[in-house]
Fold these 2 entries.
Entry 1:
Amino acid sequence: MNDVSAQILHRLSQAREFLSGEELCREFGITRSAVWKHIGVLRADGYDIDAVTGRGYRLKSLTGRPVEAEVIPFLTTRRFGRNFLYHRITASTNLLAKALAIDGLPEGSVVVADSQTGGRGRMGRTWVSPSGVNLYFSLILRPGVPSIRVPQLTLLVAVAIHQALSKVASSLIPLIKWPNDILVNGKKLCGVLCEMQSEPDLTHFVVVGIGINVNQTELPSVLRDIATSLFLETGSLFSRPELLASVLNHFEPLYDAWLHQDDLAFILPYLERYSLLQFQDVTVDQLSRTVSGTVTGISRCGELKIDSAEGQALLISSGEAHLRKKQS
Ligand code: BT5
């Protein structure tokens, strides 16, 4: 869909009633036959649009795809999502967003795909990304903070996603699993992958990649025991545009507040309240070692606080945490 088609769609979705061809010609500075061509493009894209002589055009229904015209009506942000790029299919929205960030795309730009052929997790892992059901998107940030603060963004966005999920699917009890997952009933619903380009004292940009399983009805066998979707948890279908907008709506004010703080202290109560690992016995696999102990909290800088089996108070900055069964 080109820019004008998307804008006409947005206009029709705002109007909800018939808009005359003349009005669209005037607003967009195009001819009647050009309007007709754009309506054809939209119809080919799956939009059900009435055309009635003497009355004009009316959008009958939206598609539920996370495209700009369907997301914008839910957005309350100033910057996040106001520059919006949608692809039906791409290798990875994080890869695309990084390339676009290098080209100078502004902070708040969002890259969304309906499906990914090479969705990425941490450390070369794969993010399963089928079409038509879930959310895969990446947000470009230019926080202008020392790179040492950037890992805090993963927890910050986890809070925003948690808040959005609590609003959109209020019957759920999602929990944040340090450092980058949201789980429901012990299964992964959402993953976050933050990638940055930086020098020690200067962050050029950060790409915050988010995958949320929304309306997926069946999971591949490799994920069946460890993952879930909003549909599988509730039996209901959810609006992807609304959920995407809600994440951005919650994240922008948190991010703006964080820029004016030194650390995550201002959201620690929230993080600890909804932390899956709080007061649990865990094992954390790190690149060079494995640490076991009881989680006592999250530090102001976003590290996991653990009292180790040997009685040491440890701060863990990265790794993969697993819950251990309590010894009786
Ligand atoms: C993550 O990595 O959880 C980060 C996932 C980020 C995905 C988004 S989608 C938009 C943006 N573009 C990208 O290319 N990526 C981001 P990690 O903690 O390493 O978890 C990866 C593991 O989660 C895999 O090894 C699987 O076990 C599991 N997994 C894969 N696909 C999943 C899915 N759709 N739902 C739940 N779990 C999944």
Entry 2:
Amino acid sequence: MDIKVPDKVKFILKTLNEEGYEAFIVGGCVRDMYRNTLPKDWDITTSAKPLEVKKLFKKTLDTGLQHGTVTVMLDGEGFEVTTYRLDGDYSDHRHPEEVTFTSDLVEDLKRRDFTINAMAYNETTGVVDCFNGLEDLKNGIIRCVGNPEDRFEEDALRMLRAIRFASQFDFVIEENTYKAIKRKAPNLQYISAERIKVEFDKILLSKHPKKLIDAYESGITKVVLPEFDEMMITRQENPNHIYNVGPHTICAIESLDYVLDNSDKIFDKDDILYNIKANEKDRLILKWTLLLHDVAKPLCKTMDDNNIAHFKMHDVVGCKKADEILQRLKSDNYTRNLAILLIKYHDYRFTNKMIPLRRALSKIGTDNIKYLFIIKICDVMAQNPDTHKEKFEDLRVSREKMKIIIDKADCLTVKSLNIKGNDIMNISGKNGREIGECLKFLLEKVIDNPEDNNYDKLEELTREYFKL
Ligand code: ATP
Ligand code: MG
């Protein structure tokens, strides 16, 4: 074990101990310590009651007193300290009706979801591992604490959490736990969209998003993302493809981290994608985009006389579906809008002629165009390898030409037209919406002919537009 308990956490444990209370780090941080990865947060569990905890530390926050949680603040850093507790009855598949404090650590560990998450540790006692969490951790197994059906009946979200931990650690779900998921998956309907979205985000950000296939096979996506089930059964009888829509989608998602993390090696120094940076939030948006880019293919599939499948309009229908899904999952507007924009254009053919390239750049924006290329590259990576060389080269040429447009600073927005709304009002005597429509018309013209972006020409075009 290379990870050390931080000094501040040690201080909290020691302070509680010296007053005669038991105190341990617990849950995810113990698991992560034994996996030799740095925990995101250090949770502490103690026999002290919340008010007793509060008395011992200078600064605390009442995070969830009724659930036993106090946040201890040390130099601006917060640590959650929670009293050993039992969860009461669950009647709604989500929340215990009441929680009761206990003086027995084992009771607290019993209420936790999986064996690997139900260990406690302190330096005096060492690890407390009543459910063989260490062995499951070593063997890569997600197993419920106690009877899996009962545990999923209590809180249905745990089923999606099982998939999430399997995706993060590349673990397998133990047989009885898996069977229980198959039986209890319908209970996920009682879980809020927000909690479901959090787990999906973590699955998408994980190294093994292919575990989504387990979520499909066990009946989870049928309840929380039924569109994915349709994707899983939609074949793509088309030379561009070797996978059904579902596995193609997973493969595209899996490609993203590879492309972003190796962008300094994959792309030339003068490529607009060279060393492209994407923080976690951007990555997540791109992964949602990839998850949903072909969501409408099942709806748009047709077969031609040669038994070749086509998916006309799946981009347009796809952005409507994606909008619906992301709203349903309570995604933030920024994510939703960017994902929809990228889905709309994911299959747009630049044809490598300047006008369609400028048009795309104008619609998508200079910042987002890089993301569109990344999406397109991941999409191709999940298509028939025989077609890769040609498609990648085509995209490379598009980027080269895009760069010329960007460098030349061609006019791509209404704002950068060399005529203003007021000028158009003066020329035409019109106002309101008609001015906006005229500006759009002028932008189209300038996109077709960048050299037309001068006042005299734009005035002439305005007169033409209003037939003056
Ligand atoms: P992460 O690294 O993503 O924070 P974590 O294991 O710490 O993973 P949290 O959601 O932060 O997960 O929860 C902390 C601990 O609380 C878990 O390790 C587990 O012991 C317990 N826990 C959390 N959610 C549940 C739940 N729905 N049912 C039972 N126990 C839970
Ligand atoms: Mg945690």
